[in-house]
Design brief:
- By secondary structure, the chain is α/β, with parallel strands linked by helices.
- It folds into two domains: 267 residues, no CATH class; 177 residues, no CATH class.
- It has 13 helices and 18 strands.
- It has a nine-stranded mixed sheet with strand order 10-18-11-17-12-16-15-14-13.
- Strand 14 and strand 15 form a beta hairpin.
- 57% of the residues are buried.
Length: 488
C-alpha cells in the first residue's frame, strides 16, 4: 500500500497587525521530504505515526513537505501558493497512492484564499481520484468548511485544550485511514453546526466531562471517531464557530444523530466554560498575597499562539509599579533587544528599550537599566514530546523581575521555558506566562495556583463586538438564538 503524507499548518489571526510569509514557516519549522525529525510537531504527528507503520512493513511511505508557522497575521498570497503547489507536485510525483494523510491546522487564511485547507484537500482529491482514501487532522481552533468534509474520508481533531493529545490524534487518523484503504471500514462523516464560538478549555468542567464522553463513545465501539471543532474567534471566516464531527462505519444516520446530540450538549455550555478572567492588577495582587508559590499568572490575550506578537508590556509594567519581586516572565518577543543583550554579554548592565513595538494596544516600550542574566542561541522549550523553537534568547533583570526575551515568537508551553535559560521556576513566587491554556498541562504540575489575566489588545476576544465581514451564519454570542436565525 502506497501512502503519501504532508503537513502545512498555521493559525491565522486576520485582525493581527502581523503578516505571515515564507520566512515565518522556515523560522518555525520547515522539513523537506524525508527531513522530518523523529519527534512530532503539533500538526505533523502523522509523520512518525506513518513511519512506524512503514517500519513494520505495512506501507510504502512517500513523505512530502512538513512545515509550520507560529500563529500570526494574514498569510502572504505567494507564500500559500508556493507551499500548496509544492505539496501537490510532490503528490503527483508519488502517484499512484492508496491513501493520503495530511497534518493540518485548519485556521489558515491567506490573501484571496479564505479556506486554504479546504482548497488543498479538494486539490488532493482531484489529483488522486475518488478511490484514494484521504485522512486529515485538525486543531480544534479551526474553521470546518463543507469543502473539507466533502473531500476527506477521515477527520480527527485534538480533543484536548491544552492540546496534549496531538500525538494520539495523529495516530488515530493514520489508523482509520489505513483501515479504510485496506477496505476494512467504510468511514462516513457526520457534522453538526453548533452555531456558537466560545473559549472551551478541557482542563476544567464542563468541557472535561464532554471530552470524556466523546472518548467513551469511541472506546465502546459506538463510533470510529468523535471530534469537536471549537472554532477560532480571531479568524474572519464564513465557517467561524463550533461544530461536532462523528465518523461511523457506513452508518450515516447514527453518525448524524450522535453528532447532533453532542452538538446540542456543547451548545448548552455556552457562556459557562471560561476560567475566571481577572484584571491585571487583581491577578498580580492575588498572586503576591498567596502563601505559597509559584503562582502562575497567564496573560491570556497577548498569546503568540493566537496570532498576536507577544510583545505586550502591560503585565510587566504593572508588576514593576507594584514593586513585585521573585517574578519571572516569559516571554516578550523582541529580536532587536535580544541582539543587543547578546552583544553586551552576560553580566552587562545597559539601558534597554524592549517590547511594545507592534501594536498601540500592547503598551508602551519598557525603558530601563537592565542586567543581562543569561543569553542563549537557538533556545527551545518542550510541548509534550514536541520541541518548540524560541530562537536566540536573553534573560534580563530589572528590579526583582527576570524577563525572557525571545526572537522566535512562541507561547509558553512548559516550565522548561524558564529552566532552559537558567531560571528555576520553582524558586519564584510568581511566573507570568503568555498563553491562553496550552501552558496548563505542564505548569499545573509545579504551580501552587493558576490565575488568568485578561488584557484587551490585538486579539479580538469578544465575538459579539468583533467586526466579522465574512460570517453569513447566525452564531452565539453575536445572536442569542442562532438556531432561529438565518443570517447574522
Amino acid at each position: 500500500m502506497r501512502v503519501f503524507c504532508a503537513s502545512i499548518a498555521t493559525e491565522t489571526n486576520t485582525f493581527s497587525p502581523l503578516r505571515t510569509d515564507f520566512s515565518d514557516f522556515t523560522q518555525s519549522f520547515y522539513a523537506p521530504p524525508g527531513a522530518h525529525p523523529d519527534t512530532p510537531t503539533l500538526c505533523s504527528a502523522v509523520f512518525p505515526a506513518l513511519r512506524s507503520r512503514a517500519a513494520a512493513g505495512e506501507i510504502d511511505l512517500i513523505e512530502g513537505t512538513a512545515t509550520w508557522a507560529e500563529p500570526g497575521g494574514l498569510v502572504n498570497k505567494s507564500t500559500w501558493i508556493h507551499l500548496r503547489d509544492e505539496v501537490l507536485e510532490q503528490l503527483r510525483a508519488a502517484l499512484p497512492v492508496d491513501a493520503v494523510v495530511l497534518g493540518l491546522h485548519g485556521a489558515m487564511i491567506a490573501e484571496g484564499h479564505v479556506d486554504c485547507e479546504g482548497e488543498l484537500i479538494e486539490a488532493v482529491r482531484q489529483i488522486t481520484g475518488p478511490s484514494t482514501r484521504i485522512g486529515v487532522t485538525f486543531d480544534p481552533h479551526s474553521h470546518l468548511s463543507d469543502r473539507r468534509v466533502k473531500n476527506a474520508d477521515v477527520i480527527t481533531v485534538f480533543k484536548e485544550f491544552p492540546h496534549t493529545d496531538f500525538v494520539e490524534t495523529g495516530e488515530a487518523c493514520v489508523d482509520l485511514t489505513l483501515r479504510a484503504a485496506r477496505g476494512e471500514i467504510s468511514p462516513v462523516l457526520s457534522v453538526f453546526d453548533v452555531r456558537m464560538i466560545d473559549v472551551l478549555p478541557t482542563s476544567r468542567a464542563p468541557m472535561r466531562g464532554f471530552v470524556d464522553r466523546m472518548k467513551a463513545l469511541e472506546a465502546a465501539g459506538e463510533v470510529l471517531s468523535t471530534s469537536a471543532i471549537h472554532g477560532f474567534m480571531a479568524g474572519d471566516s464564513p465557517d467561524l464557530g463550533a461544530k461536532t464531527i462523528v465518523v461511523t462505519d457506513k452508518d450515516k444516520a447514527k453518525g448524524d444523530r450522535i453528532a447532533r446530540e453532542l452538538g446540542e450538549e456543547l451548545f448548552s455550555f455556552r457562556g459557562t466554560t471560561k476560567p475566571d478572567f481577572l484584571s491585571v492588577s487583581d491577578a498580580l495582587t492575588k498572586a503576591a498575597k498567596a502563601k505559597a508559590g509559584p503562582v502562575v499568572v497567564a496573560d491570556v490575550w497577548d498569546n503568540p499562539g493566537g496570532g498576536v506578537a507577544g510583545d505586550s508590556t502591560i503585565m510587566l509594567r504593572t508588576a514593576l509599579e507594584m514593586s513585585l519581586t521573585s517574578v519571572a516572565l516569559g516571554t516578550i518577543w523582541d529580536p532587536m533587544a535580544v541582539r543587543l543583550c547578546h552583544a553586551a554579554g552576560v553580566g552587562a548592565q545597559l539601558d534597554l528599550r524592549f517590547g511594545g513595538k507592534t501594536s498601540a494596544h500592547a503598551g508602551a516600550p519598557i525603558d530601563a537599566t537592565v542586567t543581562v542574566q543569561n543569553v542563549a542561541k537557538n533556545a527551545v522549550q518542550s510541548f509534550g514530546s514536541s520541541i518548540v523553537p524560541l530562537g536566540d534568547c536573553a534573560v534580563v533583570r530589572l528590579g526583582g523581575i527576570d524577563v525572557v526575551l525571545n526572537s522566535n515568537r512562541a507561547q509558553a508551553f512548559s516550565p522548561d521555558l524558564f529552566s532552559n535559560l537558567g531560571i528555576d521556576p520553582a524558586s519564584r513566587k510568581i511566573l507570568i506566562v503568555k498563553s491562553t491554556n496550552h501552558f496548563h498541562g505542564a505548569f499545573a504540575k509545579v504551580a501552587a495556583d493558576i490565575l488568568y489575566a485578561a488584557v484587551d489588545g490585538p486579539y479580538p476576544n469578544d465575538p459579539a463586538k468583533t467586526k466579522y465581514t465574512r460570517l453569513i451564519r447566525a452564531i452565539w454570542p453575536i445572536v442569542d438564538t442562532p438556531f432561529a436565525e438565518e443570517v447574522v
